[in-house]
Design brief:
With 278 residues, the chain is α/β, with parallel strands linked by helices. It has a domain of 193 residues: Rossmann fold (3-Layer(aba) Sandwich), CATH 3.40.50. The chain contains 10 helices and 10 strands. The strands form 2 sheets. Strands 6-7-8-3-9-10 form a 6-stranded mixed sheet, sandwiched between helices. A 4-stranded antiparallel sheet has the order 2-1-4-5, with helices on one face. The longest helix has 15 residues. The structure holds adenosine-5'-triphosphate. Keywords: ATP-binding, Nucleotide-binding, Transport. This is Urea ABC transporter ATP-binding protein UrtD. InterPro entries: AAA+_ATPase, ABC_AA/LPS_Transport, ABC_transporter-like_ATP-bd, ABC_transptr_urea_ATP-bd_UrtD, BCA_ABC_TP_C, P-loop_NTPase.
Length: 278
Amino acid sequence: MSLLQSLTTRDRVFDFMAPQASPVDVRHGPILYMEDVSVSFDGFKAINNLNLTIDDGELRCIIGPNGAGKTTMMDIITGKTRPNEGSVWFGSRHNLLQMNEPDIASLGIGRKFQKPTVFEALSVFENLELAMAADKRILPTLTARMTGEIKDRIDDVLETIGLTELRFQPAGILSHGQKQWLEIGMLLMQRPRLLLVDEPVAGMTEQEMERTAELLTGLAGKQSVVVVEHDMGFVRSIARKVTVLHQGSVLAEGSMDQVSSDPSVVEVYLGADDEEAA
Ligand SMILES: Nc1ncnc2c1ncn2[C@@H]1O[C@H](COP(=O)(O)OP(=O)(O)OP(=O)(O)O)[C@@H](O)[C@H]1O
């Protein structure tokens, strides 16, 4: 057996080939910690003394009326927007306010925007392969030797997102829901510790929504997942803990039943939406 063959034997994975373990330190507390965060746009406080803590492995839903600050909050976590005040930590070791967007992403914070942006001409498999290539934690020079490991990882992710049967199909023929799952799969290829998911079920059929609920609840535990969503039925189906944002601050936090019976929440938001949903 040649040296190259021995290095690529499927049942052997060498430490130097495997992605480095995430350096995020959650031994002393949450995976995400935002304290007294504020950001103003032309004097308007879009985020106003926001305090938010996400535990390692938690699935959290963030709800709130239009303009509550949900997108801005995600932008702050990913480094797209810098707050004027406050602190944002990823585990106890990483001060996100001192890091740029690419470095935050490579720490293991993945963001799924509302619209899917898969490569339509490439197959489902190739989309996942490409996503793996974006993982900067893997030394590019070793990529050729990692074929076996990459394939195993793609197979795992295909299974997780339920697209194994469609792996050789071009992504362009997928339904809207399937494209959303593929994009989540592309993020999973990079082994994120925290996934930020913006309105995952907008435009989905009931069946696709159910499958998405299974997918997201299945991911929790393995990674932390923060879902921003307007669809109250969907939030109710997946949420353990819900945070209600209003005017850039946390208005209420707790189980869906707790927040939906909170009079201040009913007043600003849920009352109207529950009536619509009923
Ligand atoms: N770059 C910006 N410049 C000026 N104002 C902004 C900017 N980004 C956001 N805002 C304002 O900040 C507020 C919060 O916006 P944000 O998009 O975070 O709310 P949201 O909760 O995500 O709303 P939606 O549910 O409609 O997506 C809004 O009033 C918005 O107009």
